[in-house]
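Following up on my earlier thread - several people asked me to post the actual chain instead of describing it. Fair enough. Here it is, all 144 residues.
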Amino acid sequence: MRTVDFTPLYRNAIGFDRLFNMMEATSAKNTSGGYPPYNIEQKDENNYRITMAVAGFSEQQLELTQKENTLIVKGERKEEESKNYVYQGIAERDFERKFQLADYVKVVGASMENGLLHIDLEREIPEAMQPRTIAINGKTLLES
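Reply from S.P.:
Thanks for posting it. Predicted structure:
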């Protein structure tokens, strides 16, 4: 596996430390192995939905946590009696999947339906961060 060194970029990019740290963390080995599978859907400009296939897990066995800009989804199965499978194709293992969220994105809801966990996200940009017009010599930029 190749590793990428972002050190030369630190000299020329001021204030992008968090971006480089995210890129380095993403390039690190992913231990989840793609389990469970998920989709990320953009519903409109500021609304998103993560859908995870969590067959075999109940709502009580799943835990969602948002810590700063990271969404953590954990699934922990309870110890059950030993079964003698002829073939076992359904994964029955614990998992922890982390999603890096952009600034001002928060989880607004979660629901389970037919073995799918739906996590709804919304980006709320503060008023101070929204685009605005700047007056030049008393005239706004949008005036003709």
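The mean pLDDT is 81. That should answer part of your original question.
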